[in-house]
C-alpha cells in the first residue's frame, strides 16, 4: 500500500528512470547519424524547408518500455529523429519517486547546445519508458504550428510538486497544470527555457519548468503554452476516462476535447493503462478487422527467434510445480515430456509438495525418464515433499527460477500442475516471440477464469481490464502486454540474470507468490505478455479433488469434464459423431460398434476394482442379489455395480454426453432419456464364472464395452446373438457394442477357456 501512496503523489514526474544502468553492452543510438539527419532538409512535400526535427529523450537503460517507445517511433518512420541521452550511464537525477530529475534538464541542455541558434529546428522532448507516439512528424508539426506557441508543454489535472503555486497558474482551456514529461518547441526558444535558471542534477525538473511557465513575463516573451486540450500530448494519469479507443480502430481520441493526441504518456500509476493502449497503438492491433481482429504487431519479424532452426535453439529449463492435490497428473506429466524440443537442450525439475502424490510422481518419472532408454534429457531432478513441504512457495519458485543460471539456460518455464497442455509446441511457440516474460492464454473451459489479468488494483490483485472479456473469450487474438501472469510463465534467461524478477515480496502472503512476481516485474519495467493466437491448453479446477481412491480422476467428470474427455473418452470417438448409421460397423445385424472409452479408462476401472480391499467381485454371481431393488437377479454375473463404488452419477453423465449422441445416429427416431439402473463391470474368469447363459437384457438398448483383450488377456469368450447366429469376439479395448436389449437380440456370453475377461455393461432405458 505504501507503493500506492507514493505513486499517486507522483503525478506527472516521470518515475521512468532506473537509478543505475545495468546493461552496458547494448548499443546506444548513433548520435552522429541522427544529427546528420536533422541538419539535412526533408523532401517531404507537405513540409517546408524550415521543418527540421529532433526528438530527445532520456533513458538510462534499453529495457522493454524503452523498446516500445522506439518501436512507436519506427512505426512512423521517426526513429531517425531520436537522440537518446544518458543511455547506459549512471543516473544522477536523484530518486524519481520523490523529487529530482534536474539531471534530465542538464543532459538536455548539453545535448542542445549545438543547435541552440537554429530557429528552423523544432525540438521535442519526451520521457520514454511510459510514452508512445500515435502519429507521424507531419501531423505533430502541423498541430504544433497551429497552436501559435513557440514552446508547448503537456498538461495534467494534478498539481505537482509545489502545491503553494496553485493560485499562480493561469486559467486556460482544458487541463491547467504542467507536466514536464512531454514538450515541444522551436529550438531557440527551447534553449531559452532550458537556461531560465541554473538547476542542480537532483533538483526537480518539473518545478524548474513550472517556475519558467508561471513567470508571466518570461512566458509571454517566449510564447509558452500548456497543451490543456491534448492537441499533441495526453497525460493519462487522472485523465484515462477522457480517452477512448477512438474513431474506429484507428486513433485514440480525447472525446472531452474532441482531439486526437499524438503522444501518449502513462505517467504515474497510469502505466498499466498505457500498456493496454500500447497493445493497440500505434499499429498494434486492429479490432475491427476479421472475426478476431488483426494483430499487426504479431506480423513484425524483427527480434523474433527462428525456432525452426534446431541447432540454434536455446537451452531450456522447465520446472513443474505440484503445490496442491491435482487431478489428471499423468496427463500433465505426459504432456510436459511430449513437448517438441531437443532433449539434449532440455532440463527438467519437479517440485512436488503433496504427500499423496509422491509415489505416483516417482512412478511417472521412472516411466518417462529413468526406465526410458530413449530419453536423453540434459538433466532431471525431483524434489519431493520431504524437501519441499515445509518451505515457502516464494522460496521454491525463486530457487527454481535461479536454477536457470546454473544450467546456463536461455529460457525458463515455470509450469503449475493446474494446467493442461493439449499442444506439443508450447515451448517453441512461446520462445519465438522473444519477450522477457510470456505466457499462452489458459482458461477454465466455459469460464472467464484465466492465467492472466489485464489490470490490477492498487494492491496488486485482479481488476478487470476494459478488454479482458474480449481476450479471455478469444474474440481478439494477438499478443498482449498484461499486468499479471501465472501458472505457465516463460522467462528469457537474460532477464533472470538481470536480477529484476523475483517471487519474493514482503507484503504478500506465501500463496500470492505469483502476485508478488508480477508486482516486481511491473515495478522493474519488465513487460509480461500473453499470447492467444493459438490454443495450447486450459486450466483445471482443483478445488474438488480427493485422493481417497486409486484412480480419483474417474470421478472428475463433473468438475473437469474437458480433462475427463481427454483422458477417458476414446480418441476416435468424435469421428463417429459425424457418421451416418450405415457407416457404423455392424458386426451382427443391428449390433453397432463404435469407440467410446479410452484404454486408460479401461485400465483405471479394472485396477480400481481389483485394488479395493477384499474381493469386490466375490459377493456377486448368485440369484439373490441384495444390490437390486427386488433382491433377485435372473441371470446373475460376477460383477460390480457402479452404485457400489459411487460412480453411477458419473456414468449417467457419460451416457447422456457420449452414448446418447451415438444412439440417436444408429437407432434413428428413438431418443434415449439417459436413464440406466444397472451399469456394471463383469468379470469372467477361468476359475470362476466362465460364461453367461442365453438371456434378454432389462433394457431398451444395451452398451457392452470391452475392457481387455481377447486372444491376449483371455481366450475364446465373446457375445453370441442367437437369432442372428452371430458371434462377436475381437472387440478392441474401449470399443462398444450397442444393441437392442429386451426384444430382438437374445444373446449369451460365450465361455472363456483361459484368463480373465472384463466388460462394462449398461442397461439403458430399462
Ligand atoms: C531477443 O531479444 C533480446 C533482447 O531484446 C535481443 O538481445 C536478442 O537479439 C533477440 N533475439 C533475436 C533472435 O532477435
Ligand atoms: C517455421 O516453420 C513454420 C511451420 O513449418 C513456418 O510457418 C514458419 O514460417 C517457419 N519460420 C521460419 C522463420 O522459417
Ligand atoms: C503420452 O501419452 C500418449 C498416449 O498414451 C503416448 O502416445 C505418448 O507416447 C506419451 N508421451 C510420452 C512422452 O510418454
Ligand atoms: C464437486 O463434485 C461434486 C460431486 O462429484 C459435484 O456435484 C460438484 O458440482 C463439484 N463441484 C465443482 C465446483 O465442480
Automatic annotation (TrEMBL):
EC nos: 1.14.11.4
GO molecular function: iron ion binding; L-ascorbic acid binding; procollagen-lysine 5-dioxygenase activity
Domain (Fe2OG dioxygenase) ranges: 675-766
Necessary cofactors: L-ascorbate
Enzyme class name: oxidoreductase
Domain of life: Eukaryota
Residues annotated as signal peptide: 1-16
Keywords: Dioxygenase, Glycoprotein, Iron, Metal-binding, Oxidoreductase, Signal
Coiled-coil regions listed: none
GO CC terms in record: endoplasmic reticulum
Listed PANTHER family: PROCOLLAGEN-LYSINE,2-OXOGLUTARATE 5-DIOXYGENASE, PROCOLLAGEN-LYSINE,2-OXOGLUTARATE 5-DIOXYGENASE/GLYCOSYLTRANSFERASE 25 FAMILY MEMBER
Protein name: Procollagen-lysine 5-dioxygenase
Amino acid at each position: 500500500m505504501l507503493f500506492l501512496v507514493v505513486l499517486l503523489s507522483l503525478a506527472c514526474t516521470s518515475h521512468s528512470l532506473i537509478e543505475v544502468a545495468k546493461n552496458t553492452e547494448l548499443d546506444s543510438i548513433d548520435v552522429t547519424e541522427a544529427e546528420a539527419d536533422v541538419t539535412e532538409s526533408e523532401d517531404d512535400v507537405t513540409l517546408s524547408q524550415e521543418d527540421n526535427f529532433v526528438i530527445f529523450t532520456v533513458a538510462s537503460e534499453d529495457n522493454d518500455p524503452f523498446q516500445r517507445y522506439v518501436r512507436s517511433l519506427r512505426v512512423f518512420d521517426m526513429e531517425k529523429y531520436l537522440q537518446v541521452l544518458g543511455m547506459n550511464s549512471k543516473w544522477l537525477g536523484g530518486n524519481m519517486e520523490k523529487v529530482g530529475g534536474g539531471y534530465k534538464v542538464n543532459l538536455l541542455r548539453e545535448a542542445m547546445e549545438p543547435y541552440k541558434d537554429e530557429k528552423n529546428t523544432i525540438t521535442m522532448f519526451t520521457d520514454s519508458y511510459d510514452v508512445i507516439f500515435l502519429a507521424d512528424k507531419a501531423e505533430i508539426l502541423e498541430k504544433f504550428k497551429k497552436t501559435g506557441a513557440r514552446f508547448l508543454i503537456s498538461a495534467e489535472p494534478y498539481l505537482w510538486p509545489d502545491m503553494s503555486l496553485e493560485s499562480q497558474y493561469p486559467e486556460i482551456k482544458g487541463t491547467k497544470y504542467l507536466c514536464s514529461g512531454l514538450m515541444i518547441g522551436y529550438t531557440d526558444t527551447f534553449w531559452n527555457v532550458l537556461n531560465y535558471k541554473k538547476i542542480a542534477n537532483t533538483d526537480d525538473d518539473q518545478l524548474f519548468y513550472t517556475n519558467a511557465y508561471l513567470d508571466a513575463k518570461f512566458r509571454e516573451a517566449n510564447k509558452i503554452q500548456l497543451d490543456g486540450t491534448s492537441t499533441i500530448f495526453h497525460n493519462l494519469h487522472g485523465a484515462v476516462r477522457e480517452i477512448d479507443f477512438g474513431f474506429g480502430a484507428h486513433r485514440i481520441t480525447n472525446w472531452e476535447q474532441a482531439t486526437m493526441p499524438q503522444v501518449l504518456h502513462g505517467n504515474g500509476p497510469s502505466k498499466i493503462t498505457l500498456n493496454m493502449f500500447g497493445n493497440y497503438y500505434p499499429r498494434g492491433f486492429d479490432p475491427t478487422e476479421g472475426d478476431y481482429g488483426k494483430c499487426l504487431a504479431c506480423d513484425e519479424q524483427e527480434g523474433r527467434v527462428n525456432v525452426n532452426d534446431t541447432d540454434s535453439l536455446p537451452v531450456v529449463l522447465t520446472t513443474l510445480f505440484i503445490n496442491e492435490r491435482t487431478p489428471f497428473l499423468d496427463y500433465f506429466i505426459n504432456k510436459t515430456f511430449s513437448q517438441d524440443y531437443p532433449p539434449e537442450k532440455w532440463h527438467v525439475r519437479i517440485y512436488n509438495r503433496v504427500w499423496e502424490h509422491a509415489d505416483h510422481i516417482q512412478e511417472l518419472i521412472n516411466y518417462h525418464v529413468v526406465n526410458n532408454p530413449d530419453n536423453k534429457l540434459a538433466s532431471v531432478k525431483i524434489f519431493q515433499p520431504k524437501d519441499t513441504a515445509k518451505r515457502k512457495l516464494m522460496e521454491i519458485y525463486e530457487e527454481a527460477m535461479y536454477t536457470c543460471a546454473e544450467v546456463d539456460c536461455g529460457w525458463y518455464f515455470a509450469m503449475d500442475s493446474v494446467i493442461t497442455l493439449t499442444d506439443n509446441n508450447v515451448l517453441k511457440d512461446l520462445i519465438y516471440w522473444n519477450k522477457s516474460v510470456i505466457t499462452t492464454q489458459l482458461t477454465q473451459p466455459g469460464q472467464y477464469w484465466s492465467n492472466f489479468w489485464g489490470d490490477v488494483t492498487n494492491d496488486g490483485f485482479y481488476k478487470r481490464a476494459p478488454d479482458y472479456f474480449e481476450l479471455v473469450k478469444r474474440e481478439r487474438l494477438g499478443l498482449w502486454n498484461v499486468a499479471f501472469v501465472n501458472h505457465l510463465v516463460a522467462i528469457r534467461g537474460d532477464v533472470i540474470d538481470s536480477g529484476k524478477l523475483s517471487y519474493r515480496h514482503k507484503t504478500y502472503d506465501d500463496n500470492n507468490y505469483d502476485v508478488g512476481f508480477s508486482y516486481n516485474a511491473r515495478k522493474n519495467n519488465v513487460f509480461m505478455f500473453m499470447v492467444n493466437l493459438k490454443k495450447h491448453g486450459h486450466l483445471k479446477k482443483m478445488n474438488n479433488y480427493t485422493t481417497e481412491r486409486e484412480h480419483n480422476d474417474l470421478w472428475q467428470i463433473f468438475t473437469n469434464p474437458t480433462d475427463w474427455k481427454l483422458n477417458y473418452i476414446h480418441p476416435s470417438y468424435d469421428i463417429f459423431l459425424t457418421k451416418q448409421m450405415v457407416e457404423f460397423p455392424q458386426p451382427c445385424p443391428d449390433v453397432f460398434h463404435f469407440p467410446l472409452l479410452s484404454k486408460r479408462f479401461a485400465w483405471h476401472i479394472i485396477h480400481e476394482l481389483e485394488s479395493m480391499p477384499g474381493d469386490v467381485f466375490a459377493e456377486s454371481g448368485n440369484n439373490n442379489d441384495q444390490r437390486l431393488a427386488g433382491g433377485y437377479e435372473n441371470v446373475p454375473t460376477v460383477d460390480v455395480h457402479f452404485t457400489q463404488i459411487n460412480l453411477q452419477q458419473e456414468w449417467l453423465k457419460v451416457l447422456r454426453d457420449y452414448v446418447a449422441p451415438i444412439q440417436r445416429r444408429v437407432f434413428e427416431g428413438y431418443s434415449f432419456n439417459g436413464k440406466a439402473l444397472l451399469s456394471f463391470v463383469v468379470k469372467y474368469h477361468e476359475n470362476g464364472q466362465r460364461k453367461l447363459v442365453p438371456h434378454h437384457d432389462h433394457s431398451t438398448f444395451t452398451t457392452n464395452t470391452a475392457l481387455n483383450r481377447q486372444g491376449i488377456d483371455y481366450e475364446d469368450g465373446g457375445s453370441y446373438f442367437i437369432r442372428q447366429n452371430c458371434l462377436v469376439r475381437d472387440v478392441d479395448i474401449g470399443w462398444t457394442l450397442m444393441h437392442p436389449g429386451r426384444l430382438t437380440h437374445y444373446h449369451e456370453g460365450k465361455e472363456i477357456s483361459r484368463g480373465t475377461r472384463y466388460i462394462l455393461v449398461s442397461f439403458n432405458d430399462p
